[in-house]
Amino acid sequence: MKRATIRTRSEHAETIARAIRPDNTDEMVTHVENADDADRVRTTIERETTGGLQTNVDDYVVNVDVATQVVEHANQHTNTQP
Q1: CA 25 from centre of chain
Q2: Measured by CB atoms within 10 angstroms of the end CB, which terminus of the chain is less buried, N or C?
Q3: How far apart are alpha carbons 20 and 23 in whole angstroms?
Q4: What's the pLDDT at 37?
Q5: CA–CA distances in Å: residue 5 to residues 8, 19, 47, 82
Q6: Pick from 65, 71, 60, 70: nearest CA to 22
Q7: Which domains does the chain have, with CATH numbers?
Q8: pTM, whole model, 2 decimals?
């Protein structure tokens, strides 16, 4: 079994984790961890083959990037004063 663990530091780790969890397959586990006073989304992906693992990691990174952009964009609009 091939395995990759990806950690993404974010001020909005819980929101990002909740956004990406629905896309997880049975071989993926996502949770939030706090290390060194910083919140992180931590996802572990396991696959039978290196190619399958690479495909899932690529898809996951895109999902995290999109979730991060959406959260940051939403916060910009939520935190502005009229």
Answers
A1: 13
A2: C
A3: 6
A4: 75
A5: 10, 18, 12, 42
A6: 60
A7: 2-78 (3.30.310)
A8: 0.84
